[in-house]
Amino acid sequence: LSAPLRQPLELVIAHIRVLRWTAAVLAITLAVLHSVLLLAWILGNAAMTPPARIAIVLSVLGLILLGAALLMRRACTATTLPMAARAMEHAAPELEERLTSAYELSAEPHPDFRGSPDLLARLNDEAATQAHAIDPGAVVSGRTVLTLLALLAPVLLAWIAALIIAPHALGRGLRQTLFP
Question: Residue 31 CB: number of other CB atoms within 10 A?
């Protein structure tokens, strides 16, 4: 694959990677804040035996860790050049599958199926010219990150409300969450 064609694809890959990591970190933060608030509220307002508190805290902690592992696994998933090419073609139908065709023909190991070098060079040039005109931000939507940011506000407001309404019960619940 020619360097001019590889550059916009690598920009899309970088954009996807940043959005995945940002979404994973935000989702984990939301889960932790939400879970700790609920645990602190429940444990601060209910009389429970220490074994029951320990069981509840460990169950919630296990679910948080499982969810975090799944989210980080998704964030660590590699995005390949063909995946980036398909994403660009999906966002810009005018590319007419030139990116994936250029990649597949360039990666073809058998010269008989690759086509002539002139045809491949022309296809790479056309695809590179069109790919450079596309903004990587338009290819990959940041809607998930914006949604997670929007969900962070109510959780933070709930924390503030809980601290104003019942600071002693929340403090007691936090202590029992951290030291069941």
Answer: 17
Q: Which two tokens stand for residue 67?
A: 């969810």
With a CB cutoff of 8 Å and minimum separation 6, the contacts of 34 are 155
d(CA 14, CA 86): 15
* Number of other CB atoms surrounding residue 71 within 10 Å: 19
Residues 134 and 10 sit within 8 Å (Cβ to Cβ): no
Report which DSSP code applies to 46.
Answer: S
pLDDT in tens, 42-83: 998 888 888 999 999 999 999 999 999 999 999 999 989 889
Could you tell me the two tokens for 32?
Answer: 């932790």
Tell me the pLDDT tens digit for each residue of 88-118.
988 888 888 888 888 888 888 887 777 788 8
**Cα–Cα distance, 106 to 61 (Å, whole number):** 48
Nearest of 10, 134, 160 to residue 82 by alpha carbon: 10
Distance of CA 15 to the CA centre of its chain: 11
Q: State the CB neighbour count (10 A cutoff) for residue 136.
A: 20
Q: By the 8 A CB rule, do 42 and 60 touch?
A: no
Instruction: Quote the tokens at residue 173.
Output: 């619940």
For residues 52 and 174, give the distance between their C-alpha atoms in angstroms, rounded to a whole number: 15
